[in-house]
Amino acid sequence: MTKYKIMIPLVLGLFIWQGIADAASISTRVRILEGKVAKQDRVIKNSLKSLSAREAKGEQALAKVNALEKKVEKLLKGGDKKRLERADKRYTFP
User: Fold this and answer.
1) If DSSP codes are grouped into helix, strand and coil, which group holds residue 5?
2) Distance in angstroms (rounded) separating the CA atoms of residues 69 and 7
3) End-to-end CA distance of the chain
4) Buried b (16+ CB within 10 A) or exposed e, 30-55
5) 8-47 pLDDT, tens per residue?
6) Per-residue DSSP letters for 19-78?
7) pTM of the prediction?
8) Region class of 78: left (phi > 0), else alpha (psi between -120 and 50), else beta
């Protein structure tokens, strides 16, 4: 009888202790994974910020290039008219 009085609480305690150990193990794994996820989240946010900054710089540079192209086209069109006018003025009858 005393064997059973000792063995039953011992076995029950062992099962309870095993459950606690499993829960602690799971909790530790979850904390480790949360840390890894948080680190990856920071890396992704930083890369998105740098990407958006690069895109903004690219858009500004593209806008400058487009403005310069328009100026060049405008100068070319205006230069052609002036050349034609000069050519016409040289060969006109007085």
Assistant:
1) helix
2) 91
3) 140
4) eeeeeeeeeeeeeeeeeeeeeeeeee
5) 888 888 888 888 888 889 999 999 999 999 999 999 999 9
6) HHHHHHHHHHHHHHHHHHHHHHHHHHHHHHHHHHHHHHHHHHHHHHHHHHHHHHHHHHHH
7) 0.52
8) alpha
